Amino acid sequence: MARGRPSKRAEIADVAATLFCESGYQGTSIDQVVLAAGVSKPTVYSNFPSKLLLWQDVLTSLIEKTEAELATLQTQLSGHHNYTEAMLYVGQWWSENSLRMCAYRIHIGESHKLSGEVQRYFQQLDGLLTQVFSSVAEGYKVETLSHQIIVSLVRESYLLDRLSGTNNRSKETLKAQIQQVLCRFER
């Protein structure tokens, strides 16, 4: 268990999160965290015995923040008149968070550097997105197969476009594809 002061610990983790997002997991060193946080190396190591534990703390904090945001998101979703709009809203909301996108970049591109435990934290984060998508399907009573296909479309459109820095599919095209799936499987 780390021994450092909670405020210093959080400050170090916040600085590290920024560095991880800028340079990736492998490209971020403890020395960079020390310089950017303006603390000594022993201070960092007394709070985080390894870079892996530092990244794990960043993920844990991100999960907690995302869970806290979900109640507000549920309220916002109730204002959408149909399933398609709600799904698009979730995809956009999820992908607009730069730290979540950073987590995806690291866990997709640098997973070989991460422990199984840290991978489970990422799966927990990604599971929150799955939960939100599932609650939308339940609320609009969408058939499971249709919903799974649509989740794949929305994930691909928002996550992959955001991660690759492209915009390969317009919102209108995505809406049309979702409607095609709904029409085909919801007969």
From TrEMBL:
PROSITE patterns: HTH_TETR_2. Residues 6-66 form the HTH tetR-type domain. SUPFAM superfamilies: Homeodomain-like. Residues 29-48 bind DNA. Keywords: DNA-binding, Transcription, Transcription regulation. It comes from the Bacteria. GO terms for molecular function: DNA-binding transcription factor activity; transcription cis-regulatory region binding. Pfam families: TetR_N (PF00440). Gene3D superfamilies: Tetracycline Repressor, domain 2. This is TetR/AcrR family transcriptional regulator. It comes from Maribrevibacterium harenarium.
